[in-house]
């Protein structure tokens, strides 16, 4: 079973940085495709970044060059390093995991709030 818990959110000024972490308690972490999504007030949840079991990454255009996704399979964790943060990045950020061989196996964390404000 996959259970995801996010941490690292908080309040930061524009131009600042935060690192989000997501930990899994399951046993199949290394074969999962991992991702970060976010949902701002009044908006739909949107893709931020993904990383495959082989380390290939994909980023939304709005965060490319500012955010970096990485994973540590030994620790069963995925990270999102966020630099040059803007007020538009304010949202609840969610950790996601999918088993590529059966995409109906799709897991979500409870989310962590990121607020960018002066």
Shape: globular
Alpha carbon gyration radius: 14 Å
Helical residue percent band: under 10%
The quaternary structure here is: single chain
Largest sheet, strands/sense/barrel = 7 strands, mixed
What is the helix tally?
0
Low-confidence stretches: none
What is the residue-averaged pLDDT?
Answer: 96
Tell me how many strands there are: 11
End-to-end Cα distance, whole Å, is 41 Å
**Alpha-beta classification:** mainly beta
Q: In percent terms, what proportion of residues is strand?
A: over 45%
Topology as H/E string? EEEEEEEEEEE
Please describe what this structure looks like.
The protein has 118 residues and is mainly beta. 0% of the residues lie in helices and 49% in strands. It has no helices and eleven strands. Strands 2, 4, 5, 6, 9, 10 and 11 form a seven-stranded mixed beta sheet that branches. A four-stranded antiparallel beta sheet has the order 1-3-8-7, with no helix packed on it. Strand 9 and strand 10 form a beta hairpin. The mean pLDDT is 96.
